[in-house]
Amino acid sequence: MTTTYRTCPRTGLQFEAQAEALMKVNAFVAVVALLVGGLLAIGVALTRWPAVHWLPADTFYMVLTAHGIDMLIFWIIFFEVAVLYFASSTLLRCRLATPKIAWLAFWLMLVGAVMNNVAVFQGGSSVMMTSYVPMMAAPHFYLGLILFAVGALIACFIFFGTLVVAKRDKTYQGSIPLVTFGAVTAAVIAVFTISSGAIILIPTFLQSVGLVKEVDALVYRTIWWAFGHSSQQINVAAHISIWYAAAAIAFGAKPMSERVSRGAFLLYILFLQLASAHHLLADPGLSTGWKVINTSYFMYFAVLASMIHGLTIPGAIEVAQRAKGYNKGLFEWLRKAPWGNPTFSGVFIAIIGFGFLGGISGVMMGTEQLNMIIHNTVYVPGHFHATVVVGTTLTFMALTYFLLPALFKREVINPGLARLQPYLFGLSMYFFCLVMMGAGTLGVSRRHWDMAFNGHALAYEWPGAAYLMMGLVGIAGVIAIVGGGLYVYLTVGTLLWGKKLDAGQTSPAFTPIPRTAPTVAAQTYGSAGFAAPGTFALAMVFLGAFVLYYFINWKYLSTVWGLS
Amino acid sequence: MSAILPPAERLWWKHPLDRVEGTWIVIALIWCLTMFFMMIGWHIWGKQNLSTETYKTTRELFTAKAQAVVDKYTVRTETADKVPVVAPPAGADVYMIARLWNFWPILELEKGKTYRLHLTSMDYNHGFSLQPANINIQIVPGYEHVVTVTPNQSGTYSVVCNEYCGINHHTMVGRIYVK
């Protein structure tokens, strides 16, 4: 098949024509899903804000279902498909394998996403993203998800095929880049995840059309979460890869050590998919041993991997900055970072928020006993907004500011707003997550329309602090939605009205990646001293917060009723 | 030269670790193992561990057992719906049914006494969220979960359903008194 390769004059990246078109449509549909999910977020935030309590109950539950699915599944996975094609075809400078099938995958995903949304908005499928049986949604709710999953699974295999093409065509020498390695991790986890989703959603679909009598409620929960939680692990692998890429793009930073970073990704492949247990710690029927081993990702080895990435990415930036002469004190390298560049600021806000808010709270919830004081409270969405919104979504937004000129060949409209956007969105989400976790610590339920239990004879009265926290959740949510809206405006506005940029040279053949000589810097840092003392200091602050908060939660647990 | 290019050194796996990385890995590993053994330790020394005693059950079977306890130990009824308030003796098996959209019956327990609380759902998934103590347990239909509870403070407790269970989910609330 004939194709062409375009070399971007601004970044030096080489885009193959088919891959480029596919990246564009997948990224664009992702942003549309984000827009829909963001509009729905207005309904969720303004209803859970007790003083506003906007939507009626049935609309609220419908809107919450759609918000969850559009954001967690459609926005993120469409964008991830674009990232997979970028990490394979663009970074390895090769053609995309079987582009026609890649288009089929795209259409399957699109039809599935639309079908699922139609089912939800028809009103008979307000079952939340988790759609726990025996509560049933309309058949096309499940069918939409299944079609989407099949499409996404095909996209993963296109990615693997593209790696084979690059190897065979010898477009690079030695090992694949670290970012591509991270994308491989994401794709391997995705295959496991999407298969789990299919295994449980297909019988549930058959039950909804009357062909299967009953899917067991506990079996559903166990297998569904192998899909539901593991799909968030795809996000982790994907956004961490992008963090490495952003460090490379913004600073020319090289990984501190390929061995450590790749080893950490390998730990993800080995252990991340045990995470189904996180959601079943308060369930009947599962043994303690199973819960403890699985919830800890086998002795917390996947947490270890995240703690490693959390050090090595800022560490790589620090080493690169110090090499440029920003050597004063512990933190000059950080003060002199390009804080006005939204790709960098977005990624940095994402790293800190993901670690401090999402990471620490995730371990709390995933501790077998501590889960009892957290399960199904609004602490849970507080946690996953820190991981999926601050971590993944903000990272994808940051990457977009790089892709608009490189991939879409447009100059970002209104750079001033673009500079502001990651701060507005990221910092309001920090606050949103914090107050949500605060309300959750007081026990407030998630997915709940009326915390006042208006008119109920047995009504429970939440403490005033819980109302205050939920009010703040509403306010912070609205500000974050404005920040997200700004992103959609900047992205779509740039595609419509942004100044067209030079496309660069197009050639019918690829240019192989030239061999890079080992740099001097690579050989000077050994184990002689601390190459990144500032990052190490930050890591110790993180560890201190982690340890302190961990034992505070145990203290809290020790005060509740005895349970055995 | 960077993370988006193939590693410059072909034998990257032989590249020495920086001391920052090595030190951090050791610290992080120790912390991870501490957290792992903390969970196991709490099973030995802690007083809040969720029971795993579970039986398959049916609506009819569980309702019959719950009804028997209600018939035996009801001390009064409350609210317009005449929900029975059940005060079982210490150590007894007590039953609580979660269904669309209430918890039945109301329990009256004694502080410091231990009870075997049987939970199940008659229909969808429900949540047992004991407030303000903030203990949260999943209730799954078809499974009878036996949790041993020891209230440590007297007062009026609410049981809030915190698993989404349909259009009136937010009206599903029950009660436990502790004397």
What can you tell me about this protein's structure?
The complex is a heterodimer of chains A (564) and B (179). Chain A is mostly helical and 564 residues long. Chain A has helices at 17-48, 57-90, 99-121, 139-168, 178-208, 217-228, 230-251, 258-271, 288-295, 297-323, 332-335, 342-365, 379-406, 415-441, 464-497, 520-524, 533-557, and strands at 5-7, 14-16, 506-507, 562-563. A 3-stranded antiparallel beta sheet of chain A has the order 2-1-3. With 179 residues, chain B is an alpha+beta fold. The termini of chain B are far apart. Chain B has helices at residues 19-45, 59-73; strands spanning 54-56, 74-78, 83-86, 93-99, 102-104, 106-109, 115-121, 126-131, 135-139, 143-150, 155-160, 173-178. The longest helix of chain B is centred in the N-terminal third of the chain and has 27 residues, at 19-45. Chain B has a domain at 54-178: Immunoglobulin-like. In chain B, strands 2-3-6-12-11-8-9 form a 7-stranded mixed beta sheet. A 5-stranded mixed beta sheet of chain B has the order 1-10-7-4-5, covered by helices on one side. The mean pLDDT of chain B is 95. Classes of the chains: A mainly alpha (564), B alpha+beta (179). At the A-B interface, α2, α6, α7, α8 and α10 of A face α1, β8, β9, β10 and β12 of B. β4 (562-563) of chain A pairs antiparallel with β10 of chain B, so a sheet runs across the interface.
In short:
The complex is a heterodimer of chains A (564) and B (179). With 564 residues, chain A is an all-alpha fold. Chain A contains 17 helices and four strands.
Largest sheet of chain A: 3 strands, antiparallel
Order of helices and strands of chain A: EEHHHHHHHHHHHHHHHEHHE
Q: Pairing-aware structural class of the strands and helices of chain A?
A: mainly alpha
- As residue ranges, the low-confidence spans of chain B are none
Which two chains form the greatest contact, residue counts included?
A-B, 118 and 95 residues
Main β-sheet description of chain B: 7 strands, mixed
Mean pLDDT of chain A: 94
Q: Please provide the count of β strands of chain A.
A: 4
Q: What is the first-to-last residue Cα distance of chain A?
A: 66 Å
Beta-strand content of chain B: 35-45%
Molecular shape of chain A: globular
